[in-house]
Amino acid sequence: MAAYLIRRLFQSALILLGVSFITFLLLYVLPADPVRQIAGRSATPQNIASIRAQLGLDQPFFVQYGRYLWALLQGDMGRSYLQRTDVASLIWARLPASLLLMVAGIGAELVIGLTMGVVAALWRGRTIDNGLMMTSFVTVSAPQFVVALLLLYVFAVQLGWFPIGGYGTPAHLVLPALTLGILGSGWYARMMRSSMVEVLRADFVRTARAKGLTRGRVILRHALPNAILPVIAMIGIDIGIFMGGIVVVESVFGWPGIGQLAWQAIQRVDIPIIMGVTLVSACAIVIGNLLADLVAPLIDPRIRIR
Amino acid sequence: MTDPAQPTGAAAAPVLSVQGLCVSVRTDAGLVPLVSDISFDLARGETLAIAGESGSGKSITSLAIMGLLPPPAVRVTGGEIRLGDTVLTTLPESRMRGLRGDRIAMIFQEPMTSLNPVMTVGAQLVEAIRAHAPLSRRAAQAEALAALTAVRLSEPARRMGQYPHELSGGMRQRVMIAMALALKPDVLIADEPTTALDVTVQREVLDLLRDLQRTHGTAILLITHDMGVVAEMADRVIVMRRGMVQEMGQVRQIFAAPKAAYTRDLLAAVPRMGQGGDAVPRSTAPVVAQLTDVQVRYDLRGGVLNRVTHRVHAVEGVSFDIRAGETFSLVGESGCGKSTIARAMVGLTPHQGTIRIADQAVGTMTAQSRKSLSAVAQIVFQDPMAALDPRMTVGDQIAEPLLIHGQGNRATRRARAADLMDRVGLTAAQLDNYPHEFSGGQRQRICIARALALTPKLIVADESVSALDVSVQARVLDLLRALKDEFAIAMLFISHDMAVVENISDRVGVMHLGQIVEIGSRAQIFGNPQHPYTRRLMAAVPVADPAAVRPVIPRMAGNSPNPVHKVGAVVPRHRLVAVADGHLVAQAG
Amino acid sequence: QETLDPNATPGGNITVTYKDDVATLDPAIGYDWQNWSMIKSLFDGLMDYEPGTTTLRPGLAESYEVSEDGLTFTFALRPGVVFHNGREMTAEDVKYSLDRVTLPETASPGAGFFAAIAGYDAMASGEATTLEGVTVVDPLTVQITLSRPDATFLHVMALNFASVVPQEAVEEAAGDFGRMPVGTGAFKLADWTVGQSLLFEKNADYWRAGLPYLDTVTFEVGQEPIVALLRLQNGEVDVPGDGIPPAKFQEVMADPEQAARVVEGGQLQTGYITLNVTAAPFDQVEVRQAVNMAINKDRIVQLINGRAVPANQPLPPSMPGYTADYDGYAYDVEAAKALLAEAGLADGFETELYVMNTDPNPRIAQAIQQDLAAIGVTASIQSLAQANVIEAGGAGTAPMIWSGGMAWIADFPDPSNFFGPILGCAGAEEGGWNWSKFCNAEIDAAATAADSMIDPATPERLAMWSDVYMKVMEEAPWVPVFNEQRYTMKSARMGGDDALYVDPVSIPVNYDYVYVTE
Amino acid sequence: MTAMTATRVTDGVWRRLRRRPLALIGMALVATIVLAALLAPWIAPYDPFEQHFDGLTLYGEPLPPGGAFLLGTDLLGRDLFSRLLYGARTSLIIGVVANGAALLIGTVIGLTAGFFQGWIGTVLMRFTDLMMAFPALLLAICLAAVLQPSLWIVAFVIAMVNWVQTARVIYTETTALAARDFIAAQRTLGAGTGRILFRHILPHLVPMIIVWGTLGISTTVLLEATLSYLGVGVQPPMPSWGNIIFENQTYFQSAPWLVFWPGLAIVVLALAFNLVGDALRDVLDPALRGSD
Ligand SMILES: Nc1ncnc2c1ncn2[C@@H]1O[C@H](COP(=O)(O)OP(=O)(O)OP(=O)(O)O)[C@@H](O)[C@H]1O
Ligand SMILES: Nc1ncnc2c1ncn2[C@@H]1O[C@H](COP(=O)(O)OP(=O)(O)OP(=O)(O)O)[C@@H](O)[C@H]1O
Ligand SMILES: [Mg+2]
Ligand SMILES: [Mg+2]
Ligand code: NI
Fold first, then answer.
1. ipTM of this predicted complex?
2. Which Gene3D superfamilies does the protein's record reference (chain B) (predicted)?
């Protein structure tokens, strides 16, 4: 176990190194000059040159990357070009909100998606199955912004059940998490349905029925844990997709997460922030995958941690 | 053995009564009957055996009784099933559920897949108990433990916390029986409860069933193809063929004076121990397969650096050879390394030592050498369902080796496939079916047909006839024998059925913990078994004669010594000493 | 002294929302929509404007004197002004602040504004660490010497960049002064939850007695404009800092109750298309004029729900120096075609139109595209992120750019502000903001002459500027399209002159003078 | 498998597909959409790029459906219906071609990595892990910005970003399949790698590929829209269903038709493929024979 963790962490470090390199390279060749953003409209060429030199942006690529890595190893993610402050502190300030939203969102996705999938599998081929699968398509095809705003409008503005955006109390969390949950549930619903249909045919389900267990118990205790395995692997993958979806939801609900930070940074080529956010998301994804791999054997004892 | 002729409940009202049962499957070509017009009664405390051809509808009948026919295609299309006063065929699912497990329980044919892989054995037992009795968790646990103890599982308390994959096939089967035991049903349906087990374990299981019946008066519907088991266990027998009852009657009567022609064939086909004929001198034909000091070890990793710390010494220093036209059998208890040798011989498992097949060294395989090896050596896997591609029609699968080796055109390949199907007792009409549409025994035959397609020089048959009913078994054995004679095919035959082994083999090797403990000609091994382990195997074989007296053998606890050793540990080798010409016996073991 | 609003009641809190986060509150650096007005309330410069107008008035300077040659400005500081940290502001602070903003390490986007101060070049090149032209005469007197006369100098001293900051607070913050601002302004920063909200608290010791009226101002950031409007309608927000989102504009205007709370105001802003004069075909003046005639400005104004007025020259109408009697190039497709034919391009040509990718700019670009198609010009649109458009503009690779979203909102209300970097030779260099790359020595000289006049408001100077822009229009490096009108909304309880909500300088709201009525 | 056997199997598949009404509806929908895209110049009532003078109200508001403009007009006074017809071209390229490419790449990589455990597998999977660790949207933005936006570049970028999840899932599945006995059986029959991969492993992955493929249609179409929205996608005035939604989404209350119709189009496209896919999956599933 410990050995496994050490190995995985080492691999993860390599992956993060790769991510940092590729991102840095992409940003380096990006046709946009951060210095121009910093220097402002009244800048003279001299101003620009001095800022460029100050930030080391006049150095060759590998020198720049090397410096970045070296600083990173010492826990320094650099300073934002435009916010003129420590990137790490910017990210740390926003990370809890994003993580909270992510966990709640994935939770909502799972609850909604798995329920849909299980119900559809149980009534395979019936109207309810078709209806649910249709719904799953609508949810994956729905534009995030519209869904978010619609929920906000109905449940917060019209009904007044929840606050209109913001952060802090559990009530604030409901709508953003629900939005993410609805939007992502389609994938889980379909995965779950496929895998559930398969498991329901398995011999051990027949055994469970032969024992005279109630339908609920057969499904929850026997079919579900077996069917959920492919879904667990999905969660690891999902975190990566999530990082994209979170931007819109955060902005509609005024959620102070890193999505918004990243968004502004991308718009304005604030490279240190983009790098920082990318690395933090990559970390989240890597950790998410690791967790998924660690949870899998808990659910299925046959999977041994290798 | 107890006297099976006690007609205790024969006169009383039947617990289970099946009248005119029909089951059909919906196919592209319309409704096809699988079982038609089956009727029988089962009385309290009685054991009714259903014997018969593989694919005759035995499993389907029992599933119909349980109300567990595989959806959506297979359905009951006629007749009535009664449990006491309750008509099961029209019972709503919710009421049926209450009866299942409580009043009728079933042990399924495939023990490997019938337990939930993600729940501990204990939890599965406790759950079954609590589903029918209002017991506290603690009380249910105690009861489950008692049931596991009753089936003589070693270390029952520890087993409660283990998962199915941590148990061997035999242990799993015992867990299934324990479950049935704990539920104390009125009727127990046992579908081939011992097929997957080696003889010693089979013996145990049969004893258990008898115990259960004695203590609870349970009526048992025993499905089996093994006439030995029938003779030992049953009060009455139903003989089925092609979905219909051929004959029904008291077991003694049927064994003594079978009426239906099929029953006569069936009984005639039963291989019996000690009927293997006389010793024949070893053939001088060329050697097809030669194994010299073969070792197979599986690495077990662990520790901080994920290094190999332990190894399973699955096969340890095995040597033998098989000549053209000769059948060499390997016997031994579950886990002793039989399948491993089989896999090594066709290049599926890396090994040390040398294996030569038809002058070709089996070793590190390139695509080319694998292909040429496949033309001379073929394997029939132990688990037929797993060895067939579930998404390809069996016709295509049988023709596939021909296609791979570029033989014939489409039409001739199909004709060959049809011919092979016919030879293994199936029909050409079934060529376009998929594997799941066949019964267990039928699948095994399909695997045999596929292996024969290329007419190889060596066939490795790993438990290839164990799921077959005796008549088909006899047909297949005849087929194998005929092929062997016709094409001088050499065969490695792996089986736990000593009678079959005696029947078909020229030479026999007895394995224990990865090593051969005794090897010799059939006559030598069966006529003059030397090693105590060999003797124990022989004694455990059920005899297909209801009147036979079974010798008492000590029951053993189910866990066999295991072949896992630390890296670097030296495993003591048996020294084989010749006791007669070609008859070698291990001295230390 | 200050004339206080008789209706104003002190106290209360208002909530203002912004979409984008506040990057920094360091006056030397902040140059965003959302932090500009915040910094204005936290800091003061030597000069200031009358609230809601473009009229200069003294700020931290009680009075000033300009030498005859217009090269020396002597500011007499207001005594008794204290920083938020309790220390009294002195002339040393003024000098420190000007040194700081021009020092290359600060990388201030406003450094260039101070180029007229003597010694600026030495600062910019790193040779000096203090501005030679700024001298502390006594604790309450600062003298600033210019290297050339600059009519706009007093406006520059009213810019946020010229705010006076206390050295010890800057040093204490160790690079994070933008997070811990200390100034002399009407408000001080009380709390800042990064990414969520900022709380400004009334500066009880503010030197303008009686101001500000409000006790606190809460800024909530990361608020989508549409949601902000919903919250406004729900009574949770008082001022949506980003204004009324276009999607909601008609809805709001259709409801008389809401429409009554809408405030409209002019802006010192012009939306224009740049035509790169260094590359064919826009190197021909006929082509540029033809494009000027081809654009249907009324239609474009209609597209943005009439929230602008069509423009015909670079300067917005409310800017001094605007040429009121100029007709510009009238919309005339036939004439445009004729001009093109004259330039030898009767069959039109292909070109590219760069535009920033936020609504409504791509829409405007598509309208322009259609207008160009009418005269045979095929323009393909490159709708890119702001940074990419600026890059292409600076590099001179973009033949046409629609300026929307990056458009020139005046830093200070002086006609010169529309020339230097965006139409003058200085900005035409590689990387500059003069995306037309228009450089006409004669016009440049005229502009310099106008700026060298000492009094910014003399009619002669304004006439000179008017001439400059008329000459520019003759050369037609731009197509001025419209001058945006600002529409914003406030909650019912908000009080104060409407002009405060569309303050041309303290964009978008002058927090110091608004109040709540309840 | 020879061509003839293949025909026999497909014949059966086609025969059974034909008997499923849902599959037929799905196929009809797909055909309609493809035809609409191909025949757009002939069907469309207006030029999709023309900004009609009478397409906006005096205040610059778009016109609701009905009247001269069947589905209403957009914010520039263009005919929404015509734009949807032309947009089908873009969206089909993204949703079908780019998504198909992603699926193909993902399947090939997942399959190869899962089957050839050795160093090839390791290298491929580590690469997949690396790609997966990128926030997908960011990668797409950077790639598209660096490569200069255009339809095919966007399609390429989407394929480059979207294959990762498929690869991961296929990999897991393939590893499990490769360990099964019937694959070992194929080896002993002398079957070559290609045969094992494509005749025996691939068919088992079909249901999963169908699920990911059909879900991928919506997600890729929306991803394209996000990229357009960020200025790294298809450039205006070229319509795509996704970018019509994104351009107009803030107006969804005042001009709901601008979001509803393109949204519906995307759902229908995805659904149509899904109906076909589901039916195909069921038809190919031997365990479900006889259920229809
Ligand atoms: N799901 C199915 N669809 C179609 N046919 C089936 C299905 N299951 C079983 N059959 C057919 O039903 C017949 C009876 O099968 P069953 O499993 O009852 O045989 P069995 O008597 O138990 O044989 P065995 O001893 O080999 O297990 C066989 O011919 C088989 O081909
Ligand atoms: N892949 C593997 N990894 C580790 N151990 C294995 C592996 N395969 C088999 N073994 C072990 O090797 C030993 C020999 O197994 P093998 O399958 O050859 O037994 P067998 O004689 O065929 O038994 P059975 O009669 O039950 O089929 C067993 O102890 C088994 O647990
Ligand atoms: Mg059976
Ligand atoms: Mg075996
Ligand atoms: Ni031994």
1. 0.80
2. P-loop containing nucleotide triphosphate hydrolases
